[in-house]
Every structure is written in structure tokens, then in C-alpha cells.
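Exercise 7.
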Amino acid sequence: AAIPGLSYGEVEDLPKPKTIFFGAGLDNILADAAEWKKRGIDAFFVDYVAREWSTDIWSTDGKPWTIGESDETLQKAKKAAAICRGNDQQTFLKISFDHTLDWFDDILWQRANNNFRQFTIFAREAGFDGIALDIEYINEQYVFDWEGYDYDGYTRKDLVEKIEERATRILQILYDEFPDMIFLTFPEQGLGLGGHIHKAWIEEAARQNAPGGLHYCTEYTYRHCNINYMFGHVWSCHELFHRILSDQAWKYWKEKCSITAGLWPFSSDDYRLYGPGIPFAELKQGLASTLMLSPRYNWIYGSYTQEQLIGRDLEKYEGEEDIQAHLQALAQKEMVTDPKWVDLAKELRAAELKDYSKALGVIPLPQLVGPGDDVKVELVPTRPGLENTESQQYQDAWEFGLKIFSGEDVDLKADLRTITDWNVLGPFPNPDNNGFSMVFPPEEGIDLDAECEGANGQRISWRALHQEGPATSVDFKPVFEPDEWTCAYALCYVTSPVEKQVQLRIGTNDSGKLWVGGELVMDYPYDSRATLDRDVIPYTLPKGTTPILIKVCNKELDWGFVFRITDPKGEPARDLEFSLTQE
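Solution. The predicted structure, written as C-alpha cells, is:
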């Protein structure tokens, strides 16, 4: 939620960035560019011309034999670009990665690279200002354990090198044809394999000292409309690039590149809402933050609500927000005027490397997320042991994250000693996500021989689950059916030679509860991911054997948890024994 009590208005010391609109095609721009300008839109990601990397852009007009001046889409694009220049607006040809790519397939890449060359020729000849590459839609292959990677004849490091090689060649082609283009890319990829694409692009832009820079369009900022988290996210992006880029590329990043923070003001996740998708206070704070943090551009995501954002068909909105107030705020573009936030924005615009944890109350921390053991840089609240960037936990997390990012072979399960052997019972029903508060038999007492009724009336009983392979988390998806809108339990026993102080470390996807020795020690009712050490609970573990019971409720998609026990310093407690029986 937005922080209350902030003041809004004009800030002379922070020049406003140009606002780019996502969701406009050529026809929309030709008809309404001037009206968009009145609404605060200074540029467009030009959509519906070349959808993705496999597209033949000269076929968009339905006549693939027309190439160059005779192409009808190019003629229309030239008119749109000319109109925008007259309005002091810019245009960027947007292309996506929609279909997965085999990084090792030279034939595929010969075709893809030719398409990238044609995209760039089109953008240059149309009079566009640059190109935007959206690499989001193949996210599944940005993790090392994607099913398409068999590692037959290559290693993780080989994969990383090949991804960077392919990405570098893309940008070389773009600069060959359009050396002074402005280049934008989105969304953030953090320490996933997609991060190597962005790394390679910044490195290549730096080698060429490309005048237009690279502008990194964020989506985390879409609806995290709390100024602490929005400022923290930009800090996180700078921290990431400082750690993965060469000195030359980091210098180039600071001098010619920028964060382009995005906002998703209208619609809902299912695109069925034709109006404000966030409360007015969040819109004000989110928009102000994108304006303050973005020295060159910020952007508005408006797909499916173009008409409402331009002030038409407002009767289709059935929500409770004042849609006119939202539209007025988007056009006014006010920033937060409180001196603290203005000063922080200046520093973050300049990519100054400082410890902002005290000012923001959050810190960017690489974290392992199940079930795929992805490493994501998350903003987490500061806490004892993680007070600032000097904290050992912070330093260790970055060292660990960068090792995985680089493709080093790391035995995560052994190093972290997460527990992946459990007795499991489920699924139980989770209607309307109410299963979290419902009491099922394991909460009333443990009987490993008992049978009970589960979801859809099925008879269920405890069974052993031995999670094979290197995964650090327990994945319930392949274990239970149905696997959505359900709950399940996991049980094991821990034996300690002495009474000792420990930390119980757990992450659940989605909501979860944890009992140790029959005592409820964690009650987490929120949607979440199975993030390593999301919750850290100090606990006095008695001598002898103690039962550990975990409940995890799922709505949709991923379902599971990650659990381990450490000493008070966060090191695995290796003198503990875990088993599936109390004996």
C-alpha cells in the first residue's frame, strides 16, 4: 500500500522524463497521437507491426513480396513517426521474444538474426527513434533446469556463454543498421539466464559507446506502489548491474543508460476491468515514483484499456474508483515533493552506490525460489542479522547468487541442507482459499496409519516422499491430484543430541503453517513463493526427537515449500538427524 502523508507537486530539481505508452498500434497513433500528448504521453512502443523474433516484418501488410518503400506497413509507419515528431513525441519499434529459442541451433539463429536486421532497417527507414526488445514471454527458459536443457555435450557455463554470444550478436546487428538508435529492453531478469541477455547488451553498447544508451524498463514497479519498494527496486537494479558488469560497462551504464520505471494503472490481472486497477493513493505514489526515478523515460502499460486511458468508453468501467481523478493524475504527472525523497531520487537517477537500507527499510537480497531453484533478487525488510549491506548474510547471499548466475556447479541441497524427505498427506480441499483456516486431521493429532477423506471425496493416507535430485524445495505439484485450490501436509522428525538454540527457516507457496513439537510457530496466510529462508524463527530445540509438521495451501500454479534448520548464525545445523518415523 502507498505510504500516507506525502506531499505531491512539481519538483524543479528533477526534470520530468518522457512517458512512453505501451499498447498502441500504428492506426491508434495515426488517429490519436495529439490526444495522447494531451494525456501526458510523449512516446510510443509501436506494437502490432513485428510481434516477435520469428516475424517477417515485410509480411505484416499481407504482401511479403513488398520490401522497403513499397511496403504498406512501412508507409504507414513513416506517417505515424512524422506525426509524432510534430508533436514532440518519439516512437520505438517493439519486438518480443514469444517463442523459445535453441541457443545452440545455428540455423535458427541465422534466420532470427536476419529478422532482427530487417526489424532494424524498418525502424530506421520509418523514422523511428529506436527499438524496444521485450524478452519476457520465454521466461521458462531463463532457468537452468528448464526441460529444454539436457546438458548433453555442454555445461551450465557453456549455456551462459552461448546465451551471451547470441545476445551480443543481436545488438551488433541492430547497431550495424541503426547506430544512433535509442535502445530499450524489458522486463527485469535479475540473476536468471535472461540477465545474461541484458548483461551482454549493456557490454556491447559500452564497447560501441552507443550514443542512445540502453534503457531498462521495469515491471516490478507496475503495482508495487509503495515508495520505499519502488525506490528500493531501482537501487536493486543498480546493485545488480554494478556486480555483473565490467568496469567499462558500469561506467557506460552510469553515463548513458537509465532505469525506465513502469506503471500499470488500469485493468486487472485478467484484463476484464476497464478502468483503474489500483486505488487512487497507489496510483499517485506509483506514478510519482516512476517519474522521480527515471531520468530519461518512464512508461505506462495500457494494453486492453487504450480507449479508457485516452478518455473514451468510460461507461465500461464498473469499479468504484473515480476514473476521471485517475486520468487527471496521469496527465498532471506530479512528483513527491518531500526533500528526503527528492534527494534519494537524485542519487538513484545518478546510480550512486550507497547503502539505502536505513532510508528505505528494505534491502535487495538474492534468494533461492522453488520449485526450480531460481535465484531472484528480492527486496526484503531489514531485520537482525540483515541490517545493512555490511551484514554477512547480505554478502553471502550475493556471493551465492552470483555463483549460480555464472553457471558454476553448486550442490545446493548439500550446501544448504534443506530437508526433502517427508511423510505427506493430501490433498485436502481449499475452497475459496479457506483451507488455510480449516482444521484437517493432522492438526488434531498424528497417526501415520490413519486414512481420511481428502479433496473430491477421495480416501487418502500418509505416504513417504523422497524428493530425488538436486532440488532444495519440495514440489507438491507432481505428488497430488488435484493440485490447485488444495492443501497438503508434510511431516518429519528431527533428533538433537542436546537442547540447543536454532533457527527454523521456511518458505511456502502459497500460504503455510508450521508446528514444531505440536506448537504452532508460524502462521503465514498470504500468497507467496517457496523462497529459501523467507521466514526465520528462533527456537529452542529440545534434546531428543521432535515432530515437525508443515501445512501448505495452494491456489493456482506452483505449490510446495522449502525448509531447513540452522544455528543462530544461519549455518546448517549438521548434528541434527532427520527421519520419517519417531523411533
